[in-house]
Specification:
The complex is a heterodimer of chains A (about 160) and B (about 160). Chain A has about 160 residues and is an alpha/beta fold. Chain A is built from six helices and four strands; from the N terminus they run E-H-H-E-E-H-E-H-H-H. Chain A has a four-stranded mixed β-sheet with strand order 2-3-1-4, with helices on one face. Chain B has one domain. Chain B starts with a strand and ends with a helix. The chains are: A alpha/beta (about 160), B alpha/beta (about 160).
Chain lengths: ~160, ~160
């Protein structure tokens, strides 16, 4: 199956969730700033790339994990993707689109604005990381939920 | 190939452009009754934004759709192309044409009257005037779409 972690710009919360999912980040402790900073795509996607899905890896259930930025149009773009696949005669039963933006706090948002919008990476990036660290437990809970769903869906098919 | 004509609400400019593409309405002369008789004209609800509606298939075997996509056009096109690739379709198997630049004040006002104030008769008059004003531009846009290199490529593939 395919799992898309979706947020505003596919560069902070979706990267972190996908990385926890793929075992690139620990689940028993809060990761250090360096562990987050060196993740692929973390705080590196440009505004012009928002909308393009990026492949993050394959998990233990052989599912492909992607990140996808949908800006302020998450509901509409999700619907459009499902509608497009259905009209293409493709199965949408083994597809999960997970919104990770609900785990983003103000500090990450402000940091993201500084880094991505204003280009002030040295100020913005550390802020995004502090925000992620503060909310890390809710990221783990989210990924656990996704894996449970994934397991159920994999067993069904 | 899927050609998706899209605008904010989906059921005005997008329906007109898709119908011009398929020559369901006269491409030489604006006729309001033709437009009013289009199946989806003014018929896509707010709940249906993001859904694809098939209008028909053109002479090059491309499926012509309309969709209401608010102002997500640019991001949405990248997302659909990316998804197409991931699912093993060609990246150029989908094309999204955003008609939002062709909204004008008459159209916007008309849609406001129809959707928010329920003044359908007056609103529709303004919408039609707005479309008439930009009709030539929409025709040109559709001609551009039909002449696009990707589209040509697709034609060759079909002919092969």
């Amino acid at each position: 199956m395919r799992i898309f972690y979706c947020c505003y710009g596919s560069t902070h919360s979706s990267v972190v969730a996908a990385s926890i999912h793929l075992g690139l980040l620990p689940i028993e402790r809060i990761p250090t700033s360096n562990e987050i900073k060196r993740l692929p795509y973390y705080d590196k996607i440009e505004t012009s790339e928002i909308g393009t899905p990026f492949y993050m890896g394959k998990d233990e259930f052989n599912s492909e994990i992607f990140i996808l930025g949908m800006a302020n149009h998450r509901k509409l773009i999700r619907k459009a993707i499902l509608s497009f696949l259905e009209h293409s005669g493709l199965d949408v039963q083994d597809l999960l689109m997970i919104d990770t933006l609900k785990n983003v706090n103000m500090i990450t948002k402000v940091g993201g604005f500084f880094s991505r919008r204003l280009g002030l990476v040295s100020i913005g990036r550390p802020l995004t990381i502090i925000g992620i660290q503060q909310k890390y437990e809710s990221f783990i809970a989210l990924v656990n939920d996704v894996k449970m769903k994934e397991q159920m869906m994999t067993n069904l098919t | 190939m899927k050609v998706i004509y899209s605008c904010y609400w989906g059921s005005y400019l997008a329906v007109v452009a898709a119908s011009l593409h398929l020559e369901l309405i006269d491409v030489n002369k604006y006729n309001k009754n033709d437009i009013l008789s289009l199946r989806l004209f003014n018929k896509i609800s707010d709940m249906e934004l993001g859904e694809l509606f098939l209008i028909g298939m053109d002479d090059k075997k491309s499926e012509i759709y309309v969709m209401g996509s608010k102002n997500s056009g640019k991001i949405l096109e990248k997302a659909l192309k990316g998804i197409a690739e991931i699912y093993g379709l060609r990246k150029d198997s989908v094309m999204l044409i955003d008609l939002n630049p062709y909204y004008n004040i008459l159209l916007l006002l008309g849609i406001l009257l129809i959707k928010r104030l329920g003044l359908i008769k007056t609103g529709m008059k303004l919408v039609l005037k707005g479309i008439a004003k930009n009709y030539d531009k929409i025709i040109k846009k559709v001609q551009c779409v039909k002449a696009k290199p990707i589209y040509e490529e697709n034609k060759q593939e079909v002919n092969r």
